[in-house]
Amino acid sequence: MLREGSRGTQRTMRPGGGKTRLRLTLVMAIAAACNLPGCGTPAKATIQPIVTTTETATRLPTLVVPTPRPTLTLPAITPTPEVPVAAPTEQPVNCRRGPDVGWEAVSGLQVGSAAEIVGKNAQNTWWYVRDPLEVGEFCWVAMSVTAAFGNLSQVPVVLPLTASVGEVTVATDVAYTACGEPNTVMFRGTITTNGPTEVQYQWEVRGDKENTTSPQTLVFLSFGTQDVPDPGAYTADCGEYSIRLHVLKPNDTSAVDLIVIGPP
Question: Lower CB density within 10 Å: C or N end of the chain?
């Protein structure tokens, strides 16, 4: 242990006392140094954000397809014909000889076809048209089953034709007995008309013996064929004869059968 003498005073240096003073000196030096500019609270470090680049696929623009608009279908415009015509409405129709279903059908109209109107009946229920199947001919179609187009104001009233007899048939049966004796002859026949009418007819026998019956009448309510009533048994001797079924009205027409009465 060292001893300093000063003014007769001795100081005793304790072990480790020099190190203490050295440490104090360093602390003061550091403190003095911190009084310099820039010394103080340490500057905070600036943390730069890390930008992460992520590759993304380039998105193409969405293609917008416009929704098609519904097509507007306009009804077909059919010009009104100047010439009046009649056409079936739902199904084919008959074209008849006269303005009634009692008349014979001579032609017809198919759906989609039309016939020129040239007249009508007085009751305004039937059209008189040009026959669509026969050039130069005419027939009647019912208004109830047809549609008419065109100028109908000038369509005239047409009087229908009178029904007529179109066909006559005749046949005979002979029951031979002997010449010089009465031999029985039976007549039969048919008459056909094209419409409703009254038919007047008679039987006429010509030959070695002649005879004519009185006129008879057949009523036809519609077109068709009727059997002519048997006039009864007729007797004649051997010889040649003609048997005629003669229609007098509504038109004059007839049919004839030639017979020979004799031994077979």
Answer: C
